[in-house]
Amino acid sequence: MKAHVYVTLKRTVLDPQGQTIQGALKKLQFRSVADVRQGKYFLLTLADGTSRDAAQKEIDRIARDVLTNPVIEEYSFRLEE
Amino acid sequence: MKAHVYVTLKRTVLDPQGQTIQGALKKLQFRSVADVRQGKYFLLTLADGTSRDAAQKEIDRIARDVLTNPVIEEYSFRLEE
Prior knowledge:
2 copies of one chain form a homodimer.
Chain A: E1 2-9, H1 16-27, E2 33-46, H2 52-67, E3 73-80
Antiparallel strand pairs in A: 1-2, 1-3
């Protein structure tokens, strides 16, 4: 089973990296992009035989406690067989 | 319209950052995780009135030419109304 974890800055937190990318896209004439936010993506491969329930709990704990800084970031994840 | 772009290292490329995270998870007793790969995630907001077709083309070009280093990385993206 695989888990895809997405960690992004909270909406209220300034994202200078995203703004820099947006500025670059504007200079490169990509005019349709109104905003860019950058985040992190983790692909976790789980050991064979992990049940979906156990995976759900484990990944939630990993995302919350290890991969995310709860002061400025939020996370979401999805499991894939 | 929003575009979610995921950039990951190619399967054949070593990912020391992912390995470090996996080592940390192991030490923290998360035993079900067999492998970790880290990538980047971009959330692009497109200007109102961009058609789905135009967005598809534009985001593909942006992902390929700006957000991804084609030597070591690959990308995927999805559009969301």
